Amino acid sequence: MENVTQRTVDFIEELQFKHLPGEVVHELKRVLLDSLGCALAGVATDKGRLAIQLARRLGGKPESTVIGIGDKVSVTSAAFANGELINALDMDAVIVPGGGHVSPSVIPAPLAIAESIKAPGEELILAIALGHEIATRLGLSLRGIMKYVKEGTAGNVVLSDVYGYSFCIFGGTAAAAKLLKLNHQEMSHALGIAGYICPVPHFMKWSSSPPPAMTKYASSGWLGQAEVTAALLAEMGYTGDTSVLDGDRGFWKFYASDRWKPDNLTEKLGQQWQMLGLNEKPYPCCRIMHSALDSFIKLIDENRLTPEDIEKVRVLINLLGEEPVWHNSEVKNHIDAQFSVPYVFAVAAHRVRKGADWQDLNTINRADIRGFMNKVTFDTHPDFVK
Question: Is the separation of the CB atoms in 345 and 293 below 8 Å?
Answer without folding.
Answer: yes
